[in-house]
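USER: Fancy drafting a protein?

ASSISTANT:
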Amino acid sequence: MNPQENADLLAALMRQEELLKQLIASINKPKLGLHSEAGNCKIYCNRHNGSLWYTLSNNEVTPIASTALTGYLRELKFEKCERRSKEVYKLLATIQADRTYILESGHDTHFTKSILAAMPAATRSGNATLTPQQLYSPITLQPTPGTTDENVLFCRVWVESELVMASYNEETNWREVSKQALAVTKAALEMTF
């Protein structure tokens, strides 16, 4: 390439970067005008209340009829909280869509393990896993009931129309998988801003 071609390419890349920044800024803007979507929407992902996932308002359970949630995975974190007078750990997955959704599931549930196993290096069997670059695109989380135990809830993870196939077993080192999953989401977020 000659110097002029290099300069043109650099200018085009700088324009593209500026457009990407504007696009990200527009995605993160709040809705304007009247609506009923102020604040976060917390979704509980378990089968305790007759549905796959649900919300709570004034201790009233509202089942969610939708079979999937599509948005940008912004954060994964573990949090200690109190449920039924016991201290427990929960995974909180923050999804940015038409509003911010926070999915809560037990730290050692199959729902949580399904999400964590979808991250890089979760398994050694060569299964497809999410990369920070893929997290620039929306992902879809689909709660899936277990077939042999009516208390079990899995989570299918999709990138575009491709199911992320990641398995785990009793030997999976969940502490290491969790660290890697948290690192992937953090790296994707840092690369975005």
Remarks:
- Residues 41-192 form one domain.
- Residues 68 and 142 are 4 Å apart (CA to CA).
- Strands lie at 41-45, 53-57, 60-63, 69-83, 86-96, 100-106, 139-145, 153-159, 162-163.
